[in-house]
Protein 1
Amino acid sequence: MQSLEDELDTARQLAVADLADAIESIGFECTRCGACCTADDEDDHTATVFPDEVRDLQQAAATGDEEREWRDVARPMPYGLAESEDGDLEGETFEWALQTDGCGDCVFYEEDDAGRGSCVAHDDRPLICQTYPFSIALAGTSQPMGEAVSEEGIVRAHECEGLGRDISRDDAEELARALKERAIRELEEAIAVRDRYRPADPGPGEVVVHDSEGAKRMDGTPLED
């Protein structure tokens, strides 16, 4: 198995034109169905967000001069956390997920009167949102929304009703550039998390999130402060 450093080198050498060819071959057009932004029958919406993306979203969602709190934008990735006797999550986890509302949907998702979905932070949405439903098949990169339903070379496509539709070359290349950037960022993040990780031993009802910047509390502040 290749190391994360080797996979990162592979990601950096990916040709945008080749990725665009694969995307064109699979085909895609967003139908604004909202499925990628909302909870399914079993789980809340879960989309990985990098620490700098959280800060960008805090600013983008600011009201006047008032910036949103970290926890308004992101929550600890739930995988690996346990539920305490009080029903709260506790333990250690890795990375952040976009925050969800009471229905388990992304807090930035809204529907109009016709039921068409939209992202209220569209221009600042994380890379994983920009590139859905595609991913790169490299170890250390995330594979959203379950198993791939289609593949073309190193490009994987995940369940989405917009697959198979015509896509322009310009749109395919724009998506390909974002997809390459995301793969690189995910691998850089994974390496930094690995190198900075130190067991934190959180107490009852406490959550510690390990990201590329170190261990943090649920509100995004460094654990060492």
Protein 2
Amino acid sequence: MELFGNFGSNSDLSSTIGLSNTGNQFWNLTPAELVEDTILQGEGLLTDTGALAIDTGEFTGRSPKDRFIVEDDITKDAVWWGGINKGISSAHFDTLYARMKSYLSGRDIYVRDSYACADDDFRMNIRVVTELPWSNMFAYNMFLRPDEEEIKSFSADWNIVCAPGFMADPEIDGTRQHNFAVLNFSKKMILIGGTGLQVKSKKEFFQY
């Protein structure tokens, strides 16, 4: 495994979120680099206006019935549970993430250090780990960007792991079907998979 791009001292995904044995890791690439990788991988193409066009697959809109919140000591009495705020167990979260890590083993990944809220009193640092370069571009566009000095000492408050190619197994993972977004407030992680619709990376974070 090699690290490329602009990364800081806290760049060991193995120690921070237990993600090891990946292929090359590309950190905080520029939009031009991400577009180039997307095109070279056959994941998208440039339109006649110069915009990057992506086919996100079967899902073209939100899938609210496939969004879950880990039900634990933090959330059990704080969330209005129901058809939209659906619970999932900590055990299912751990199983799902273990299977995602196995899926990402040996694969190149893209990492984006970013943050939400311009007010320093409320700022949350977000690290977004994506299977695909264009997913990382979405994070570049949606979140605020630390400067080079901030990246050197960047420490994530929340981590988002997004793997569109990974399909959940409802019987094993406790999901409704193969696509999912799962929020874990205790571990401050969001898992997204089985869908190329990247709005979930933004929506799942800002809803809370």
Protein 3
Amino acid sequence: MKNIGIQIYSAEDKLREDFRATVKKMAEIGYTSVEGAIYDYVTLEEFASSVKDAGLTVSGLHCDLSKLENEFDETIKYFNTLDCHDFIIPWSTWDDEDYISMTNGINKFQPILKKEGIDLHFHNHQYEFLDRISRGPNKCIPFEHLRRETDVFFEIDMYWVAVAGKDPVKVITDNKQRIKYVHMKDGLTENEDGNAKVLGHGQAPVLAVRDCVLDLGLEMIVENECREPDGVTAAAECFKYIAK
């Protein structure tokens, strides 16, 4: 099977106890890459050496655009030190002001990041597929707006697409040219607040999405938010399910 990465937020409970040992455990489970963020509880040097010593790579970092506005050089250094080439915007409020600033920020920084060898992505939740978001004069479906008004890549979170009542396989297939990574996540999909579960224990079409991602040659990033009984154990269960 194609390489499988993990968003190490999935094991944040254990990361905060022992970052290096937790990253090593992800490699032992079978994951080949980690997706992370800019952390305040571990140094950049410790992050980089932990990943290298475990034989992993950093597939991407979730990071707010404000980091580029306020700490550009430091942020680029963080990415370069980790040999990471994918900057992932983790979310948006989609109120009227954020609606405009998000679009402008993407269009401003995408070419700047490209010159640094970094691709810019947007990670969805359910809100990007709901037309009631941004209630003012700019009311729209945020995902459609980003697809039309920017060239940003999409990190599709299949679970939140399902929570929004959409078919994640169709969303991924229709946008395959703008997708590098798909978040594999499961949970209850009956209400838009969601309720995350270990892969295979929820209502999202995990295996159908897995097969679609493999067919399209995209990369899977496991994310587990419930951490039951703990992040490492849940990560192992997720890997076993997705790799079968």
Protein 4
Amino acid sequence: MLLPRLGVNVDHVATVRQARHALYPDPVIAAGLCELAGASQITVHLREDRRHIQDRDLLLLRKTVQTKLNLEMAATPEMLRTAFEVRPDTVTLVPERRQEVTTEGGLDVIGQKDALKRFIAELVQADIHVALFVDPSVEQVQQSARVGAHAVELHTGRFCEASAIGRAAKEVRAEEHRRLVDAAKTAIKVKLACYAGHGIHYDNVADIASITEIEELNIGHSIIARAILVGIERAVREMAELAREARRAALLEKRT
């Protein structure tokens, strides 16, 4: 993959709206602006408690998104019915707990292999591309292939948050980066597409984008936060260019 695709998660646009239960800002309009700025995909997470994205948003996004629509969701009967109705281009299965502020970790594919295999089979039968959001574990990636997924999205949170860990941050970052590289290489070996997301921001995106096996980045909070200051189109363009520059440099280094 020459350059990584950028998927923009517009959940936090809806978070601002829901803080006042207003009609604005509208994540559907934000999604269109992201696409105009070069986003290759729009990502939303429809949660059980509807804390940000609403069913109305998802239905309108399906009608208006011109690139690809990626629906993050839990593996529940309600969400399966939603996926069948909306027909997103990709469903990314994620763990979900009501108490969490944001998704805290990857799916335990190994521990839930039988249930996930049945759930994924229904999505595949409906011709929906399925990704699993997993921790950067070789074993979890291998099991993702066995249960029938098309792709894995590697949870980059621990790597991205390592700067807050303290004196051992450098060692933690190095170890977490190695785990991401190993998991990404494993994904390619078992014929899964490899994506990455969670906690990626403007200061660390180059580290993730330089892993050449990763073909897609899904980024939300940092882009929407920057958009408040510089506008959403500029925020998206800047992130996309940082990712492209890092990928070009990594590919050039591989050739030399």
